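Onboarding guide, step 5: your first structure request.
Type a short instruction followed by the sequence, for example:

Predict the 3D structure of this protein.
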Amino acid sequence: MARFKLDTTVSILGTVWAVRICTEAEEPRLKNCDGFTDKTTHVIGIRDMPDDCSLGNPLDYVKKVIRHEVIHAFMFESGLAENWEHIEMGQEELTIDWIAIQFPKIQSVIKQIYDKLEEVRG
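The system replies with structure tokens like these:
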């Protein structure tokens, strides 16, 4: 049974993205992951947690996956995803600056999604 069913849209840096919490049967791209971000269709997919999942607090986990995938979408929309320098050790200032500048916008999008999630949960 679906716990956290959600189908909504949000604006990420001016681009409309669909955010869907659904089952693997409804979204085959969730077969081997708990979430994905499709930059070609502007879709964020999150795996719904079944009633028999082993997580003590599945809602917290779903929110964590939402945050993770929304960050990917912001990276794609800001143009950084394809040009990101992956350093094995340490933190680069570009990363810190980008998150600091974008965080209020990211937080706003995540709050919109959380609010919709609360609405559909009743």
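Each response can be followed by summary notes, for example: The mean pLDDT is 87.
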